[in-house]
Design a protein that fits this description.
Layout lengths: L8 E3 L5 H11 L2 E3 L5 H18 L19 H4 L11 H4 L1
Parallel strand pairs: 1-2
């Protein structure tokens, strides 16, 4: 696991919205652990990987760094059916 470089609060999907808002206000970032099921994350990663491999290097520079692939194209999310539906439809995709 990669260690985060920021001091974000780590919360869970069943934490109340007030806790999320307070953590976001005090820390500037919030990580919601286990928000998506592992199989959805794996499918989404597989869907998006070819586009990140194709264009992710285009944004590497002294400011962004040279080890992170970045997606600036609006077409990247459209490469996955998971990006075009709500959580209610995820079970039909697995």
């Amino acid at each position: 696991m990669v260690e985060a470089r920021y001091d974000a609060s780590s919360l869970f999907p069943d934490d109340d919205i007030e806790s999320v808002a307070a953590a976001l206000q005090s820390r500037g970032a919030v990580v919601i652990d286990e928000l998506l099921p592992d199989n959805i994350v794996a499918d989404l990663s597989a869907d998006l990987r070819p586009e990140f491999d194709r264009e992710g290097h285009l944004y590497q520079n002294a400011f962004n760094g040279h080890q992170t692939l970045r997606g600036g194209s609006p077409s990247i999310p459209r490469t996955s059916p998971l990006c075009s539906c709500t959580p209610a439809c995820w079970p039909s995709l697995t």
